[in-house]
Amino acid sequence: DAGVIQSPRHEVTEMGQEVTLRCKPISGHDYLFWYRQTMMRGLELLIYFNNNVPIDDSGMPEDRFSAKMPNASFSTLKIQPSEPRDSAVYFCASSLVRGGEAFFGQGTRLTVV
Amino acid sequence: TQLLEQSPQFLSIQEGENLTVYCNSSSVFSSLQWYRQEPGEGPVLLVTVVTGGEVKKLKRLTFQFGDARKDSSLHITAAQPGDTGLYLCADNDYKLSFGAGTTVTVRA
């Protein structure tokens, strides 16, 4: 397996624009996590899914953020409208079982200007 | 909400020296994981500890889990520049929550 695949690797957008980040988890993994990483706040869990169902979205900062998992092989994180304070590296991770090893993608570096 | 505290925040040492980083929780861990993150990459799992008092060794890395399962340490013997990175502890019960991490720099 190629591991967790995220796209794009880098995204630069203007404030107010919609941004969509994409993730393909490892095949067969039942858990998918979205994180945001900044120097100030570290690695923050935004939302996680189990079997394509959102289980805990308490980390989603505002209504401007939304995440979907339409099937077992694809998830999106959308920010609309984007703001400069959303600039961060966004990671997607997947794991086979609860409490198991989490495999991370290489992240998407988002810059909102 | 469980709070994970890691210390120190930064650590810079010379190649060949030993180092220890710590992870403490406000409540009991169900299980604890240590990850290392290198610049430009996502975190990678080093070890999972489950049982209080458990000690695991991975080459030059030694992981200890406190008897009460509320704290853990990672000790690196004879550190090498390749050990440079951000070391993160995580509680992986229902969701994978991370501490702020310790940034380790090993100078050649």
Keywords, please?
heterodimer, A: 113 residues, mainly beta, 7-stranded mixed sheet, 4-stranded antiparallel sheet, 11 strands, 56% strand, B: 108 residues, 5-stranded antiparallel sheet, globular
Radius of gyration of chain B: 13 Å
Please tally the β strands of chain B and state the result: 11
Spans of chain A of at least 5 consecutive residues whose pLDDT stays below 50 are: none
Measured as a percent range, the helix fraction of chain A is under 10%
Report the strand count of chain A.
Answer: 11
Rg over C-alpha atoms of chain A, rounded to the nearest angstrom: 13 Å
General description of the model:
With 113 residues, chain A is mainly beta. Helices cover 0% and strands 56% of the residues of chain A. Chain A contains no helices and 11 strands. Chain A has strands spanning 5-7, 10-13, 19-24, 31-38, 42-50, 53-56, 65-71, 74-79, 88-95, 102-104, 108-112. In chain A, the strands form 2 sheets. In chain A, strands 2, 4, 5, 6, 9, 10 and 11 form a 7-stranded mixed β-sheet that branches. A 4-stranded antiparallel β-sheet of chain A has the order 1-3-8-7, with no helix packed on it. In chain A, a hairpin with a 3-residue loop joins strand 4 and strand 5. Chain A is globular, with a radius of gyration of 13 Å. In chain A, 37% of the residues are buried. The mean pLDDT of chain A is 95. Chain B has 108 residues and is mainly β. Chain B has no helices and 11 strands. In chain B, strands 2, 4, 5, 9, 10 and 11 form a 6-stranded mixed β-sheet that branches. The mean pLDDT of chain B is 94. The chains are: A mainly beta (113), B mainly beta (108). The interface between A and B is medium-sized, with 21 and 22 residues.
